[in-house]
Specification:
This protein is mainly alpha-helical. Helix content is 48%, strand content 6%. The chain folds into three domains: 101 residues, Rossmann fold (3-Layer(aba) Sandwich), CATH 3.40.50; 158 residues, Alpha Horseshoe (Serine Threonine Protein Phosphatase 5, Tetratricopeptide repeat); 176 residues, DNA Cyclobutane Dipyrimidine Photolyase, subunit A, domain 3, CATH 1.10.579. Helix 2 crosses helix 7 and helix 10 packs antiparallel against helix 11. The longest helix is centred in the middle third of the chain and has 25 residues. The protein starts with 6 loop residues before the first strand and ends in a 7-residue tail after the last helix. It binds iron/sulfur cluster (SF4).
Length: 498
C-alpha cells in the first residue's frame, strides 16, 4: 500500500501503547460471536471486555469502538471500504481471517521479544535439527543483553532451576509474602458485568466459572502498578517457591502478570528489565530473577515462536492416541464432585479465579488428563477457555506439546506423568485427602499413583524406548501387584462422590 491507511485496528489482546501506530484513527471491535462459539470462563470474558473498554476510554475520540456480531460486520460498520492496518494477530485463525480481507495491511507482530522470522533462522541453524528451549533461552539472553555480565551470564551460570524447587514451608497455610496487586473495579466493570448477565439471561451466551471481583489488571496503569508491586514485594521470593503449592494460597509468590502480558498491556521487555534492575540494585536474589526471566524471555517466547513454527496442523497431534472426552465435572469446573483433594482444590481455584500457576496446571490438571487418556485437543481447548491468560498461541504448544505429550516429544523429552509422591512433596494437599499418595492399590489408593502406573503400562512400548522413561517401564515390570493396580486405576475415579 502506498499511502498510510486511515485506520488502525486493535484486537482485544493488543491493548498496550506498543500496538498503536502513529497517526490514523483507531478501530476496536467487540465480537459477540467469539463468546457465542465457545464456553469461556466468565472471569476471562469480564477481563477481556473490561480491558478493551478501558483502552477505548483512554483513547477517547481517537477510537471507533463497535459492538457487532462478528469482526467482519464490525469492521464494515467502523470503516466501510477504507484501508486498515493491524499488527500481526496472535492466532492462526485470526491471521487467516485478516489475510482474507481486502484493504487490510498486516504490520509486524508486537508484544514479544523475538520475531518469528528470527526464530526460524535460529531453528534452521540448530545443529542436529533438534530445538531445545535452553539453547533458545541463552540466545535470547545474549541477543537482548539480559542478565549478562559481558558475554557471561550474570553470576556465572545460565540456569538456577536447582535453587527454585523448594517445597512449601511446613505447616504454613500461606507463604510469608505480601499478596499480589489487587485492582479496584470501576463503572466499566459494572457495565461489563451487567452485559454478561444480560447475555446469559437471554440465553445467547453460556459461561463457566465464577466472575468474582476482578483480580487481574485491565488497563495499562493497573498493569504497571501490578508489575511494580510484584518486583518490589514478591519477586525476591518467587524463585525458591515457584513450583510449590499451598491449598490456602492460590497466588503463592507468582507475578500474576501473564494475563496483562497476553492482553498486550505490558511488554515483556519492561517486565524482564524491571526484574533485572531489582537484581542489579541488590533488591532481589539472582535465582528469583533468573527464574522469572526464564519464564518470560525463555518459555513464553519459545511457546509463541513454536506456535508459528509448528503451524496449524500441530493442533491435530495425538501421538498417544488419546480420545476420551472430558468428563462433565471437569468441563463444568465442578470441584464439589471431586474426591481427590488436589484435583478438587485446584479445580475450585480455576472455577473461582480462572488462574492457577504452572505446577497445578501441569502436574495436577494436565497430569490427570494425560493419565486418563483425554483427547489432547479438547484438553487444550479447555485450558484456553478456562484461564484468564489462555490464548491459542500459548495453550496449543503448552498443552498439546508439554502437558499432553501429544506431539510425541517435539517440545519436551518425556511425558509429564507422575504419581502422588510429587504432589505430596510439593504441596500440602495430600494430608487431608481421602487417598494416600503412597498407596497404589486398595480403598485409599491415590488416583494419581495408580493412574501413573496404568499410564506407564498402557504406553510401555513407547516409554521403554525413551531414555528418560525406560526406567519407569523397568520398575513397572517389578510390580508384583500390577494386576491389582490396573484394576484399581480403571475403577477409581477422582470424581467419586465425596
Ligand atoms: Fe492428590 Fe493423591 Fe495426594 Fe490425594 S493423595 S491429594 S489424590 S496426590
Amino acid at each position: 500500500m502506498g499511502t498510510q491507511a486511515p485506520f488502525h485496528w486493535l484486537f482485544g489482546d493488543q491493548l498496550g501503547p506498543h500496538f498503536l501506530r502513529p497517526g490514523g484513527e483507531v478501530v476496536m471491535i467487540e465480537s459477540r460471536a467469539v463468546f457465542r462459539r465457545r464456553r469461556f470462563h466468565r472471569a476471562k470474558a469480564h477481563l477481556v471486555l473490561s480491558a478493551m473498554r478501558h483502552r477505548a476510554a483512554e483513547l477517547g475520540d481517537r477510537v471507533r469502538y463497535v459492538q457487532a456480531e462478528t469482526y467482519r460486520d464490525g469492521l464494515a460498520r467502523a470503516v466501510g471500504d477504507a484501508a486498515v492496518t493491524v499488527h500481526h494477530p496472535t492466532s492462526h485463525a485470526a491471521l487467516r481471517f485478516v489475510r482474507s480481507l481486502e484493504r487490510v495491511e498486516i504490520l509486524p507482530p508486537r508484544g514479544f521479544l523475538v520475531r518469528p522470522d528470527a526464530f526460524a533462522r535460529w531453528a534452521d541453524s540448530a545443529g542436529d535439527g533438534r530445538l531445545r528451549m535452553e539453547d533458545f533461552y541463552r540466545r535470547v539472553r545474549r541477543d537482548h543483553d539480559l542478565l549478562m555480565d559481558g558475554d557471561r551470564p550474570a553470576g556465572g551460570t545460565w540456569n538456577l532451576d536447582a535453587d527454585n524447587r523448594e517445597p512449601p514451608p511446613k505447616g504454613a497455610a500461606a507463604l510469608p509474602v505480601p499478596g499480589p496487586y489487587r485492582p479496584r473495579e470501576d463503572a466499566i466493570d459494572e457495565r461489563v458485568r451487567d452485559d454478561l448477565d444480560r447475555w446469559e439471561r437471554d440465553g445467547t451466551v453460556s459461561f463457566v466459572g465464577r466472575d468474582g471481583p476482578r483480580r487481574f489488571p485491565a488497563s495499562r496503569a493497573e498493569a504497571r502498578r501490578a508489575l511494580r508491586a510484584f518486583v518490589r514485594r514478591r519477586l525476591p521470593t518467587f524463585g525458591p517457591w515457584e513450583d510449590a503449592i499451598l491449598a490456602g494460597d492460590w497466588t503463592m509468590s507468582h507475578s500474576m502478570l501473564s494475563a496483562a502480558l497476553n492482553l498486550g498491556l505490558l511488554d515483556p521487555a519492561e517486565c524482564v528489565e524491571a526484574a533485572e534492575a531489582a537484581y542489579r540494585s541488590g533488591d532481589a536474589p539472582l535465582n528469583s530473577v533468573e527464574g522469572y526471566v526464564r519464564q518470560v524471555a525463555g518459555w513464553r517466547e519459545y511457546m509463541w515462536n513454536l506456535y508459528w513454527h509448528l503451524g496449524p496442523g500441530y493442533r491435530e497431534s495425538n501421538a498417544l492416541g488419546h480420545t476420551a472426552p472430558l468428563p462433565d465435572w471437569f468441563a463444568d469446573l465442578d470441584a464439589g464432585a471431586v474426591r481427590a483433594n488436589c484435583l478438587a482444590t485446584v479445580l475450585a481455584q480455576v472455577r473461582d479465579h480462572g488462574w492457577v500457576h504452572h505446577i497445578p496446571r501441569l502436574m495436577i490438571l494436565g497430569n490427570h488428563a494425560l493419565q486418563r487418556g483425554w483427547d489432547p485437543a479438547a484438553v487444550t481447548d479447555w485450558f484456553h477457555r478456562c484461564f484468564v491468560d489462555g490464548y491459542d498461541w500459548v495453550m496449543l504448544t503448552n498443552v498439546i506439546g508439554m502437558s499432553q505429550y501429544a506431539d510425541g516429544g517435539r517440545i519436551t523429552t518425556k511425558p509429564y506423568a507422575s504419581g502422588g509422591a510429587y504432589i505430596d512433596r510439593m504441596s500440602d494437599l495430600c494430608g487431608p485427602c481421602a487417598y494416600r499418595p503412597g498407596h497404589r492399590t486398595g480403598e485409599r489408593a491415590c488416583p494419581y499413583t495408580a493412574g501413573y502406573w496404568e499410564f506407564v503400562h498402557r504406553h510401555r512400548e513407547r516409554l521403554s524406548h525413551n531414555f528418560r522413561t525406560a526406567r519407569a517401564v523397568k520398575q513397572l515390570g517389578r510390580l508384583t501387584d500390577l494386576d491389582d493396580v490396573l484394576r484399581d486405576a480403571r475403577h477409581r475415579d477422582p470424581d467419586a462422590p465425596p
